[in-house]
Amino acid sequence: MKSDPKELKGIVKIVTDELLKYLESSKKGEGKVLVQEDPERLADALNLAGLIRDGSIDNSNVREFIRIYLRNTQHMHHPHYIGHQVAVPHLASGIADMIHGFVNNPMAIYEMGPAAAVMEKVVVNWMLDKIGWFKAEHLHESRDEKIGGGGVLTHGGSLANLTAMLSARVSISPESWTSGLQEDLYVLVPETSHYSLARSVSIMGLGAEKIIPLAVNKLDQVIPEKVHSTLEAMENQNKKVMAVVANACATGTGLYDALDEVGDICNNFAVWYHIDGAHGAGALLSEKHKHLMKGAEKADSMIWDAHKMLRSSALSAGVLYRDHKNLDATFRQKGSYIFFEKEQLGYDFMYNTVECTKAALGSKLFWALAAEGEAGIGQYIDEQYEKTREFFAFINDQDDFECPYEPQSNILCFRYSGASDSDDFQLKLRNELVNAGDFYITTTLMNSKRHLRLTVMNPDTNLESIGKLLKAIREVARSIG
Ligand SMILES: *Cc1c(COP(=O)(O)O)cnc(C)c1O
């Protein structure tokens, strides 16, 4: 392919034809969800080394190439994809990726992509508005920075959590940026929180020992009274608490912590309150479910992944602040080629991110919203949450299955109890099921017990899919005895 416009046009057509066929047949539930070839055989089938050597992908071989590639994908659009929390992306979000791939505007400085930068600003303002942190009149106003909340999009929730933790550190220990940590700082984190928080604490040099696990109930949710007593004990021992974290919702179970109560406690102790809403902040868009996010506005920072419940392709994650000043104070870097005083239009996100070059992350969410409207995305979240409760009732009704709790979100844990009760058996069930390729599900430990786990991301997954899943699990159970 030698950048001849006519040939390129042909290739774009072939690729989009094949993608649309893939989408249609996946949505109909045709074929396997996942086939895992031996990696070396797969590399051969795709002729990866040969194509690198010869630069010979062109009109004549691209169709076969893309077909093999697509056959070897995780088929997210297949209704039997009920696995991880990654969005089944809206087609519109894919269009955003295509545009970005063509124009490649790393818009962390305004002059490197004004349209993409303004898109990020508007979707960040939209997120802030949903939390109640946006104080300007119109979503396109950048004036809000002076008076209300602030935020930025990062390449994923893990980086967003790290950014929020950095802000918390600067807030309690402003000198740490320059002098390094001169004192011990503690972070109170639910035992069930995402591992990226523990990682952030270690990356920042606090040391993993400075994580104080917050006690959780049988459903792995934070117990607010324990937050209070822990903070009191820390105060009595003159130990400085950098942040308290709550889940909205927990990755494993999909259950929300009592955000409102924990918020009141943190505000009373004047300690930084961070909500990890990577998966579940989308409930803010649902009339029926936004009560789960009650009290979210009491946080100092929150993260919210668009590539989970907002139909956006990976990655696009908001790190959001009640007070923009806390974000503005976080990074204090100098770089003469990029950070200089200038009379300029627009805004540079670069001052507020770990990243230097950054993709047009706002465009992924913008296109999904522009296609569905915020009500449409809200309805999607509503339906996924409602459906999951229906699946719960159905599974719980079976003699040989048990669900430990009624789900609050679109994450559902259950066990097959028709044979061995051991954790190993649940794991084996899952492995055999996934190897067969007709379903993709995950597992998690809950209350220290291994459970099978569904994340109902796909709009096309229905009760019939779940009926078939249970049947397949029973068959696998029989075959492994
Ligand atoms: C997925 C998730 C993360 C990590 O987000 P990535 O975008 O995968 O880096 C953090 N916290 C919670 C609660 C999550 O569910």
Number of strands: 11
The proportion of residues forming helix, as a percent range, comes to 40-55%
Ligand roster: pyridoxal-5'-phosphate
Strand pairing plus helix content: what structural class? alpha/beta
Overall mean confidence score, pLDDT:
94
- Beta-strand content: 5-15%
Describe the structure.
The protein has 481 residues and is an alpha/beta fold. The protein is 44% helix and 12% strand. It contains 17 helices and eleven strands. It has helices spanning 5-27, 39-45, 48-54, 62-71, 91-103, 114-131, 144-147, 157-172, 176-179, 195-203, 224-236, 259-269, 306-309, 324-328, 361-396, 423-436, 463-480; strands at 150-154, 185-190, 211-214, 240-247, 273-276, 301-305, 317-321, 401-402, 411-416, 442-446, 449-455. The strands form two sheets. It has a seven-stranded mixed beta sheet, with helices on both faces. The chain binds pyridoxal-5'-phosphate. The site of pyridoxal-5'-phosphate (PLP) has 15 residues, from helix 8.
What are the SSEs and their pairings?
Blueprint: H1 5-27, H2 39-45, H3 48-54, H4 62-71, H5 91-103, H6 114-131, H7 144-147, E1 150-154, H8 157-172, H9 176-179, E2 185-190, H10 195-203, E3 211-214, H11 224-236, E4 240-247, H12 259-269, E5 273-276, E6 301-305, H13 306-309, E7 317-321, H14 324-328, H15 361-396, E8 401-402, E9 411-416, H16 423-436, E10 442-446, E11 449-455, H17 463-480
Parallel strand pairs: 2-3, 2-4, 4-5, 5-6
Antiparallel strand pairs: 1-7, 6-7, 8-9, 9-11, 10-11
Helix pairs in contact: 1-4, 5-15, 6-15, 8-10, 11-12, 16-17
The protein binds pyridoxal-5'-phosphate.
